[in-house]
Design a protein that fits this description.
- This protein has 119 residues and is mainly β.
- It is 13% helix and 64% strand.
- An 8-stranded antiparallel beta barrel has the order 1-2-3-5-6-7-8-9.
- The longest helix has 16 residues, at 2-17.
- The radius of gyration is 16 Å and the shape is globular.
Length: 119
């Protein structure tokens, strides 16, 4: 019984420490050719599981393999470009109302910063 209580306390402590990322976030970044792009994230959190969608002018895609670990989040999104599917891997560090992402797609990577969007 005592071990169960200790385990439950630890689980609740970890859940309390998890970053509050649920809701809408907006990121802007500059492409290598100098164009500015916007991406919207709509995150849902259930314990350590992150779900939701990523939207851009190219459409909306569901989040897969999403995780929340303290102030770190990670997930993947599959996007279709001209009939080719590309998997984007997002790794982010949450700090208040900002998430600094490193995004990997194939052999390329880039960084972007998302800010909590007004509802």
């Amino acid at each position: 019984m005592r071990m169960t209580t200790i385990c439950m306390t630890l689980v609740l402590a970890v859940a309390a420490y998890a970053a509050d990322v649920a809701g809408k976030w907006k990121a802007s970044f500059t492409t290598p050719d100098g164009q500015t792009r916007e991406t919207m994230f709509n995150f849902k959190v259930d314990g350590a599981t992150l779900t939701g969608t990523v939207s851009s002018p190219r459409g909306e895609s569901p989040i897969s393999d999403g995780k929340v670990d303290g102030d770190n989040i990670s997930f993947s999104v599959i996007r279709n470009f001209g009939g080719n599917e590309i998997k984007f891997l997002y790794k982010g560090k949450v700090s208040g109302n900002e998430i600094k992402f490193t995004v990997e797609a194939g052999e390329r990577s880039f960084e972007m910063t998302a800010k909590r969007a007004e509802s």
